[in-house]
Amino acid sequence: MRTASASNSPGELSPGTAVALPHARQFEIHSAQGLPYRLLVAVPPEAPPAAGFPVLVLVDGDALFATALTNARLQGGRPEVSGVGPAVIVGIGYPGAAPFDAERRRQDLLPDVGGADRFLDLIETQLLPMVADLAPIDRARLALAGHSFGGLFTLHALFNRPGLFRSLVAGSPSIWWNERAILAARAQFLRSPAPILRPRLLITVGGEEQKTDPLRFPDRATRLEKARMVENAAEMANSLAASGRLDCEHVVFTGENHVSVIPAMLSRAVAFTLAEPSVRGDSAR
Q: Is 12 among the domain residues?
């Protein structure tokens, strides 16, 4: 029979030690405008593929990075099942302890007064070169994922810089924002020359994102009805799939709301963006 030691008697715990995410590092960077960011990067310990590691970039990194990294490690641990190999996971966050910085993310993620374009500049000209200094990366397999305003930002990135990311995941995108102004960007994208690499887009949403109790939460019920999260996501996905300009998938996670859907979205995002092209049946680079 195992006996508890005097220093760790039943009902007592030692002070413990800090827990770190495997192979993850944190950096502080500043934009050209002097704004601070927290950069979270996980480089796998395996040798890189000949073309370099695929890269998954997450906005709202403070909220999404750890879950995405865990999914990448789990799925990458069984590549014969998942098709997912080693990949670099990157989260872009902000100083502070909150998982979402409401004001900073509005400045960066909304295509308003050039904010989203400045953020794309940061990703393209500062962040990706920094990641490339840490590990060899495959620029033909760059991916971007975001949730809510981050999902809207992902659509903005696709429509305005379609050659930057090969795979994109728009989780619960806020298509409702600014009277659905993103639809004008979509129209311009569909009229523009096709990018060299055919984009791949996954749009996800929780099946409960338009539902609440109108008697208990009348104001919220009105907002959800106006936002049309589930319907807007379906309409966007159907329109883009029908255009023939990109490969577009649409997933509704039954039973999930705007917050609970995040882990499900990230699990699917890892599989969608990081599975080997041969496994996806998409061998063209």
A: no
Question: In Å, what is the CA distance from 143 to each residue of 2, 85, 138, 259?
Answer: 50, 14, 10, 22
Please give the model's pTM, rounded to 2 decimal places: 0.91
For the chain, the domain total comes to: 1
The range of the structural domain enclosing residue 241 comes to 24-277
The answer to the question of residue 2 being in a domain is: no
CB 198 within 8 A of CB 132: no
Angle (CA) 44 130 277, round 5°:
50
pLDDT in the model for residue 1: 42
Q: Which residue's structure tokens are 């480089």?
A: 43
pLDDT at 226 over 60: yes
Give the integer Cα–Cα distance in Å for 117 and 187.
18
What average pLDDT does the structure give for the chain?
92
Judge whether 225 lies within some domain: yes
Statement: residue 3 has pLDDT above 70: no
Exposure pattern of 228-265 as b/e (b: 16+ CB <10 Å)? bbbebbeebbeebbeeebbebebbbbeebbbeebbbbb
Q: Which residues contact 133 (CB under 8 A, 6 or more apart)?
A: none
Residue 40 resides in a domain = yes
With pLDDT > 90 as the criterion, what percentage of the chain qualifies?
Answer: 80
7 has a pLDDT exceeding 60? no
Q: Please give the single-letter amino acid code of residue 44.
A: P
Task: Give kind and range of the element (H or E) at residue 42.
Answer: strand 36-42
Identify which has the larger pLDDT, 225 or 252: 252
Domain CATH code at residue 65: 3.40.50.1820
Contact 260, 240 (CB under 8 A): no
Phi, psi of 136 (to 5 degrees): -65, 130
